[in-house]
Amino acid sequence: MNEILSLNDLLHLNDEELKHTKIRFCIVPGGSNDDPIEVFKRNPEEILGWLFHRRKQNHFNVGENAICLVRLKNDPNLWLFATMQKVVRDLDVWDSYAYEGKEFAQYKPLYGRVIIRFHKGRYQFRNADTVVDEFEVVQVLPDVFDDNPFPGYDQISLPWREVERIIVRNLMDWRNALEHQKGVYVITDRATGKLYVGSATSDKGMLLKRWSDYVQNGHGGDVELRKIVEEKGFDYVKDNFTYTLLENWNERTDDKRILKRESWWKEALDSRKHGYNNN
Question: Where is the GIY-YIG domain (predicted)?
Fold first, then answer.
């Protein structure tokens, strides 16, 4: 039988360091849709806002170590080792981002890669010296955690925030799949049901570049989508738009063929009369 590997077998904290280390367990707050694992996936730096948020009591003292564990979705006892910071400053604020931290260079390669099994009970914070040996390491990932790998061209239907995550995080499986592909896609406004059919050609920089444009400003230069951003704001796009790939073609395909297919889909989906296409 294999011996259990604990988190401290990777961190090698001595007894004195453990006495000055606290662990925060990040889970979805009651009544909230803001899932910290999605925050981490979108941008690992944002998880510091969860680790260092102070509400009614003081959580950390200057000089302490702060470990952030983020609960995974499919098992309440599985946690991702998101970061470890030295608390270097108390910002003297409440119900806000309340501390300044400094990461540990020696542990940075482990951030987002170590999955731990632990039953936390009702506590949001624990002192490391009382529990760290109970943190069973179940997996060390080859790369930073991501549970949405490229699914295949016929399975792409993503809300705006997922497209943003792919672009901002520069996820290589997605990048490799999209950066040399032309295609026809449909954008769905989930609030109204209206559609916009678009295309990615060599002139527009392939699928990766085209969708990067939508992440940047919400409209990608498209006239009707620009009107929506101007009238309703960029957050409307972020909250309501979904991007679905209808067809993909390799980079050697003539752009004229792509444009003909785009026109066909506009007719098929009636996106000129009842959607956002104006040509």
Answer: 180-278
Residue-level pLDDT at 1: 45
Long-range contacts of 137-144 (CB under 8 A, 24+ apart): 137/5, 137/6, 137/7, 137/9, 137/10, 138/78, 139/114, 139/115, 140/10, 140/110, 140/113, 140/114, 140/115, 141/112, 141/113, 141/114, 141/115, 142/113, 143/113, 144/44, 144/111, 144/112, 144/113
Distance CA 75, CA 59 (A): 26
Q: Determine the Cα–Cα distance for residues 218 and 147; give it in Å rounded to an integer.
A: 25
Strands (E), 168-275: 181-189, 195-200, 241-250
pLDDT in tens, 104-141: 999 999 999 999 999 988 888 999 999 988 999 999 99
Query: Which residues have a Cβ under 8 Å from the Cβ of 202 and sit 6 or more positions away?
Result: 182, 251, 255
User: Nearest 5°: phi and psi at 39?
Assistant: -60, -45
List Cβ<8 Å contacts ≥24 apart for 227-230.
228/189, 228/276
Assigned fold of 153-269:
GIY-YIG endonuclease (3.40.1440)
Contact call for residues 68 and 114 (beta carbons, < 8 A) = no
In angstroms, the CA 205 to CA 181 distance is 9
Q: What amino acid occupies position 153?
A: Y
Domain definitions of the chain by residue range:
8-140, 153-269
DSSP state of 11: H
